[in-house]
Design brief:
single chain
Length: 133
């Protein structure tokens, strides 16, 4: 019987990761409200649940910090391309030009590249840029 329940949990995939802190607190409060007054929750189990909640909160804060760090790193990388000659992969064609402007939408930097001939390429994401020295 225990193996079936383990199999069911493993098949659910990443659904447990979608729980928020609010969900965890609701579950914890429901557990405390519905417990038998003559047989309260074991203190060690309660402390373990609080430790899990703290760990969840710290993990979310660390994830947020890493996201901010990646955004700063991406912005720094794109600013470093200003004035450089780069290659731009536009569909199946590759063109070269000088980066003349950097703008952002959300956390995504978008470059403006001035090719040797033709109109400026605007709104070019970093994933389409190849550094040519």
């Amino acid at each position: 019987m225990a193996l079936n329940s383990v199999a069911q949990v493993s098949q659910s995939g990443g659904q447990a990761s979608k729980l928020t802190q609010q969900d965890f607190l609701r579950i914890l409060l429901t557990q405390l409200n519905t417990q038998d007054p003559l047989k309260p929750v074991d203190n060690t189990a309660f402390v373990a649940q609080l430790a899990q909640f703290t760990q969840l909160q710290q993990t979310q804060e660390m994830s947020s910090s890493i996201s901010q760090l990646l955004a700063v790193q991406t912005a720094t990388q794109s600013v470093g391309l200003l004035g450089r000659t780069v290659g731009v992969l536009n569909g199946a064609s590759l063109s070269t030009g000088q980066v003349i402007d950097v703008s952002t939408i959300g956390n995504e930097p978008l470059l403006t590249v001035k090719p040797a001939t033709g109109a400026n390429l605007t709104g070019v994401p970093l994933k389409q840029i190849f550094d040519i020295r």
